[in-house]
Amino acid sequence: MVHISRRRVLASAAAAGATALLTSRGAAAAEPGARQASGPAELGGHDPVTVRWLEGGTPAELAAGTTWGVPWPRGALAPEQEFSLVSDAGEAIPVQSWPTGWWPDGSVKWTAHAVSGADPRAETYQLAPGGAARPDSPVTVSTSGRRITVDTGVMTVSFRRGGEQLVESIRRGDTVIAEGGRLIASRQDKPSTEHAEVIRNQSFVSSIDEVTVEQDGPVRAVVKVKGKHKNDRRAWLPFIVRFYLYAGSDAIRMVHTFIYDGDAERDFVNGLGVRFDVPMRGEPHDRHVRFAGPGDGVLSEAVRGITGLRRDPGAAVRQAQVAGQATPDPATWDQRVTTRLQYIPTFGDYSLHQLNAHGFEIHKRTERGHSWVRVDGGRRARGLGYVGSPSGGLAFGMRNFWQLHPTELEITGAATDTAQATVWMWSPRAGAMDLRFYHDGMGQDTYPEQLEGLEITYEDYEPGFGTPYGVARTTELTFWALEATPTAERFTALADANATPPLLASGPEHNHAAGVFGSWAPVDRSNAEKEELEDNLAFMHRFYVEEVDQRSWYGFWDYGDVMHAYDGDRHTWRYDIGGYAWDNSELSTDLWLWYHYLRTGDATAFRFAEAMTRHTGEVDMYHIGEWKGLGTRHGVQHWGDSAKQVRISNAGYKRFLYFLTADERVGDVLHELIDADRAFLVLDPGRKLAEEPFEPDPEALPLGKSTDWGALALAWLTEWERGGDEIAHTKLINGVTTIAALPNSWAQGGNVTYNLNTGRFTGPSEPSISIGSLSSVFGLIELMTELLQLIDDEQVTDQWVNFCRLYNASKEEQREATGSDWGNLNLRQAYSRATAYAAVRLEDDALAARAWRELRTGHAGYPEDHPFTSERIEGPAVLNPVNEAALSTNASAQYGLAVIQCLALVGDHI
Q1: Sequence ranges of the domains in the chain
Q2: pLDDT value at position 496?
Q3: What pLDDT sits at residue 66?
Q4: How far is CA 857 from the centre of its chain?
Q5: Backbone φ, ψ for residue 319 (5° rounding)
Q6: Are 875 and 805 spatial neighbours (Cβ–Cβ below 8 Å)?
Q7: How many CB atoms sit inside 10 A of residue 898's CB?
Q8: Region of residue 91 (left: phi > 0; alpha: psi -120 to 50; beta: else)
Q9: Cβ contacts of residue 392 below 8 Å, gap of 6+?
Q10: Which segment of the chain is annotated as a signal peptide (predicted)?
């Protein structure tokens, strides 16, 4: 069931009357990744596209199934196009396909495709226009008054439409594998770290507000549940949960998002989890527990162990229990054991808790009220557990289990008729979340004092602004309804699929030829100069990937982000210094990482960018409250800085993951951002420098036409591509055309204001200049590169190309073109890609050469002779040995983007 129609996107395309296809006016040359077909394209005439597993090879298991996105050239395919998928062995694979993005002419730009883990897998597949094979047992969805039932052909899952239980039951045939699936949470009124004499606790359980079927097969079904955590006194912690089920599969993928809406001074969350009841069958010695450790490690135990006893029940009995099979009839055992079974302890409770990134522990106990016994431990668990018997059981797991610590897998009551299996996304064994601001303000009560503080620590502090109210976190989980206790080999395959869900992907060459995401091209090592730049890009990326582990940038609220700036004296990142700590997308780190993936197709690059998008799209922005749609500037805490900005919540950083995976949660976030301009009614970004009180006028808001508008426009562009709200497209076109109509367009000074209702800018008729170095380094260059592909407006094109040409031009050239020079601008290396864009649009070889000079000079970045090397620092100079490199994240992100785009645009002038 697809809710975005072709009709809506075509209506949207007509709304502002400015969406004809870009003419041949330099388009093919300017956009290496957007080459147009020679002559009119025939709809449905595209050649097959090869897709392969991101990590390579053929995965042993999938996390239920997999869904991925593929781009298509403009004019190639109609929205109603069906697709076939054929394995490299020539076998037709059932596939469900739907469009997720459109070109302005209504042809398909992006499609999503889903296959089930139950179907045969191969190393590569051919995706082509054509009829899709149908699954032998299509997934079906039926709705009654109280429940929604999804049948995959292997299991039947009933979802409640109200109450506490999100999942009423999971069945295989007549066997109930699990039931009563609900969310649980708890809070305490004081922090765990201050030794309060009395701490009051409260428990909460999920309460459903709304259930929606978003897709109903034939390969993939999606059920969305929204609600809050509730007890008899309070409802809070809103959640959005999606369940994904695939034809023929016995697995359920779950994507869980919660939003923090508490008071950080008194609401300390000390437990957050998902719990199922699991009926237990058979004798305790035929009930099994499994946990996945690191590598291929598996802990295999029984609730009542019969190995290692003083009396031996027999080799066949022992071997069956260890293998997870039903033991032989007790009449065949050594009767010295069977007559004394009641004296063997039954261990009904188990816990695997990963409270930090460097170690987990497993404990067990007989039952509540008795001591825990240590079982074993290790470094990093893969995050999968199992409880059940040879007649069936539940495997339950969490992705990024150790990276998102403190986490826990818990089994209780396995010696009784009903066990409980819980995935703790925040383990009760850890201290409670403490989301309070980290200092008392240090007397910064006035704007002048706060500006002085900014001068020394780079932190933009303001009382009351360091609030976590409205931030979110998304976690991915998988549950398997297994017909029997899995073998150790299958269990480890399930654990691998849980930890790194296999994903299909089209390659860099196809994605580039489709013309998506602007100016980039696949890796090119065709000469020595290009090879040196490719080496630099590879070194930078590898260094940051390794830094995550080297610096242990892990944890529930932190995983996915990197640090902003380095302290060479302490040999550490400036984690504790104001605005120099967590990066929070400053200067488009996310963009750099995604473009690195696009051009390399590297699995590590994808996973790194994916983790950052999950983080920055949830933790670093507000999803409810008066600042909804705004992000928080870089700082010691992700929500701590008082600068709340759309340049941080920027949709341009998230749309890659959406289109490459069709992830619905990312789609939700992108949709949230189309109204982010409304936040300018409640918060003046320039309040600390303003001379008059802030009295917002919806028709004349002080919204920046570059950094602010660029971030908003990326949300509107994405909404237009997706065929959503027509107002987004109208605002996009109105904004770009009215900015271009200003005397000096994006560089225009004076009182330029924004109309919230129409998206139009109004400014003085006389030319003046007001431009900052940050204006285009939060996605504006990338936005305009894509937007000029889509609209045919000569004034917009000319003004943008002129802006790109002039930023790094001489003062004389700037004065001649705009009436005054642009001052001493910063980040000139970053803007070399703007020069390169102008060079291609104007077919100017001198500009192309200038772009390379600007890149090599390295102003506010990395000059040509910068050492892309690392040095080993050992103790006692540091706590742990580290590899240290002369890199800053601002410079790395912008250097990376500049090199990537210069190579794509003017690579033949290097």
Answers
A1: 6-129, 140-304+345-499, 305-344, 521-909
A2: 98
A3: 98
A4: 35
A5: -65, -40
A6: no
A7: 29
A8: beta
A9: 172, 175, 177, 281, 481, 482, 483, 484
A10: 1-29
Question: What is d(CA 168, CA 277) in angstroms, rounded to the nearest whole number?
Answer: 10
Mapped onto helix, strand or coil, the DSSP state of residue 847 is helix
From its phi and psi, is residue 308 left (phi > 0), alpha (psi between -120 and 50) or beta? left
Instruction: Find, among 590, 558, 399, 551, the residue nearest to 473 by Cα.
Output: 558
Cβ pair 798, 863 in contact under 8 A: no
Torsion sign (Cα): 257, 262, 263, 264: negative
Domain 140-304+345-499 listed as CATH 2.40.30: no
- Quick check: 351 and 409 in contact, CB under 8 A? yes
Q: Which residues is 761 bridged to in the sheet?
A: 754
Report residue 149: phi and psi, to 5°. Answer: -115, 130
The 8 Å CB, 24+ separation contacts for 746-751 are 746/705, 746/706, 746/771, 746/775, 746/776, 746/780, 746/799, 746/800, 746/803, 747/771, 747/803, 747/806, 747/818, 747/822, 748/705
Tell me the one-letter amino acid at 212.
Answer: T
Assigned token pair, 131: 């009829």
Q: Which CATH code is given to the segment(s) 521-909?
A: 1.50.10
Residue range 189-224, pLDDT digits in tens: 999 999 999 999 999 999 999 999 999 999 999 999
Other CB atoms within a 10 A radius of the CB of residue 195 amount to 8
The DSSP symbol for 769 reads B
Q: What is the pLDDT of residues 810-843, one digit of tens each?
A: 999 999 999 999 999 999 999 999 999 999 999 9
Gap between the Cα atoms of 374 and 372, Å rounded: 7
Are 845 and 811 in contact by the 8 Å Cβ rule? The answer is no
Cβ pair 581, 575 in contact under 8 A:
yes
Cis peptide before 120 (omega within 30 of 0): no
Cβ atoms 259, 234 nearer than 8 A:
no
- Reading the block at residue 697, the tokens are 């006028």
Contact by Cβ (8 Å): 857, 863: yes
Q: How far is CA 321 from the centre of its chain?
A: 41
This prediction's pTM: 0.95
Structure tokens at 623: 């999803």
- pLDDT digit string (tens) for 567-598? 999 999 999 999 999 999 999 999 999 999 99
How many distinct helices (H) and strands (E) make up the chain?
21, 35
CA–CA gap between residue 506 and residue 53 (Å, rounded): 9
Percentages helix, strand, coil for the chain (3-state, rounded to 5) are: 30, 25, 45
For residue 617, the one-letter residue type is G
Tokens 């050594």 sit on residue:
334
Those residues whose C-beta lies under 8 Å from the C-beta of residue 610, and which sit 6 or more positions away, are 657
Distances in Å between the alpha carbon of 844 and those of 27, 29, 799, 802, 805? 15, 12, 16, 13, 10
Residue 43, pLDDT score:
62
Q: d(Cα 706, Cα 780) in Å, to the nearest integer?
A: 7
- pLDDT digits 0-9 by tens, 72-90: 999 999 999 999 999 999 9
Instruction: Tokens for 38, please give them.
Output: 């020679």
